[in-house]
Amino acid sequence: MKTLDYYVVDVFTDSRYKGNQLSVVYIDEELDINQYYDISREFGYSETSFVNYSTTENVFKVRSFTQAKHEVIGAGHNLLGAVCLALLKKWDIFKGQGTQPWVMIKDDKIPLKITGQGDLPYVGMKQRPAQIVRTVPTELIAQAIGLSVDDLNLNGWDINIVKTEVAHLMVPVKNRELLKKAISNKSLLKEASAKFGFEGCYLFTTDHPDTSILAEARFFNPGIGIDEDPATGTAAGPLAGYLEKLGHINKDADFQILQGEHVNQPSIIHVKVVNDGVWVSGSSVIVMEGKLYL
């Protein structure tokens, strides 16, 4: 019977049992697609990452899947957790790469920046520059998240689809109390996602008493089987890029986004907009490891 090593890490946090849970499975070779689906469903987290080091390509490769048989791309918690795990386990995944480390998520090359934060690795993932794709009607989204049109009036900002690698919907919410009251109507969100061409719905407010927090956010993505995600790097990057385009923040400055409070898994996502992209950064901690039987 073949076995695989697996790990569970909490991502975008420096404390166990906080952040976004991620299962990571080390594989020697590609699995059958149904094995990816079955293992991801068995773990039951929002995403499961499968990793291996390719000696022919000299690169650490990651593939990630949701419980709903959807393959996830982009530089999010699925990639950050996998890279942090490799560093914590002291796997030599950057040999022969020179001064700029990078990894592959499916077919995309993601540049990294590796530093330390206490005993934990601190990993930055570089996303592409943010692009505003299109505006979505406020009335439609208000109904899909159980709020009123007026509840979504934050500084007069529109509800826009914004993309770095993955196109997500940026939904401004007036304050934290209303953010807390939002409820995902799965069928309406799925309809809107299919009609307008976005993946997840990223609700955010800049109304936070802690001035070190740029925004507090919640993420709904029922179309790929995620009811509410505690930390979403592929949405935090577009949000930072969007706020920079709105003139709310400056380039080359570090900011923090708080997510996961409403599912009791608070996560801190660090973001920085630069001329050629958006850096999304954070730490991870290992909480479990064991053997998986195929």
UniProtKB/TrEMBL annotation:
Pfam families from the UniProt entry: PhzC-PhzF
GO cellular component, as recorded: cytoplasm
First and last residue of the signal peptide: none
GO MF annotation terms: isomerase activity
Origin: domain of life: Bacteria
Entry annotation: catalytic residues: 47
Naturally occurring in which organism (per UniProt): Mucilaginibacter mallensis
The protein, known as: Phenazine biosynthesis protein PhzF family
Similarity comment: family membership: Belongs to the PhzF family.
Coiled-coil regions listed in the entry: none
